Amino acid sequence: MVAHARADHPDEACGLIAGPEGTGEPQRHIPMINAARSATFYEFDAEEWKQVYDRMWDNDEEVVVAYHSHTHTEAYPSRSDTGIASELGLPGAHYVLVTTKDPDIAEVRSYRIADGVVNEEPIEVTGAPEAVQSYKFAHTPDSTVYDCP
Amino acid sequence: MSIEVRVPTILRPHTGGQKLVTGEGETLAELFDSLDAQHTGLKARVVTDEGALHRFVNVYINDEDVRFIGGLEAKLADGDSITILPAVAGGM
């Protein structure tokens, strides 16, 4: 997610992590096109989203994580992020925000969004500590901050 | 004429949890009327009071985004598959 956000900077990047229905396990990373191609807005490309959804449907998968980047602001859901997710969103999904405003430190934070209410949730790095460490070192030490109060 | 509709998770409370429902209609507008008769409240999540599609919902007939083929007036044929998806969007 961070690498995708960096690659698309200064535009906002967006994507999904899908997992088997009902498990809540994020298993398949799907970087998406930002149809808005904007530094201040993102929107899934309708055609690509349909193709991705068809494959998830066939695989009995659901959206576990829906992420996007902010390029100039905090990794916190904006008013439009919250409004659109509340109107017709992805219930059960973790909404993850990555900010690329700092060229060296990427901040990653996760939220639940429903009915206009944003609740931050902690991110716990599990499963493959070596992979996470090697990623951090590959991008200079201390470059990834999993920040959550 | 029976039309199959894939329902996104966010709208499944209107369909008793069903992922796949069926409805009838010559056009998309008629289909949503027919769906609403069985699944109360579903139509209002997709269609505005003024009778247009909500801005942040995507509706497809087979693989076609209906915005490009007539919106709610788009014609349906027997065996068409309809998919409703939330438009995933936002900004700073």
UniProtKB/TrEMBL annotation, chain A:
Residue ranges of every copy of the MPN domain listed in the record: 1-117
Single GO biological process annotation from the record: proteolysis
Keywords carried by this UniProt record: Hydrolase, Metal-binding, Metalloprotease, Protease, Proteasome, Zinc
Claim: Protein biosynthesis is one of the keywords in the record: no
Protein name from the UniProt record: Proteasome lid subunit RPN8/RPN11, contains Jab1/MPN metalloenzyme (JAMM) motif
MF terms (GO), sorted A to Z: metalloexopeptidase activity; zinc ion binding
GO cellular component: proteasome complex
PANTHER family assigned: CYSO-CYSTEINE PEPTIDASE (PTHR34858:SF1)
From TrEMBL, chain B:
Tree of life domain: Bacteria
InterPro entries per record: Beta-grasp_dom_sf, Mopterin_synth/thiamin_S_b, Sulfur_Carrier/Prot_Modifier, ThiS/MoaD-like
Pfam families reported in the protein's UniProt record: ThiS
CDD domains, per the entry: Ubl_CysO_like
Name of the featured protein: Molybdopterin converting factor, small subunit
Organism: Glycomyces harbinensis
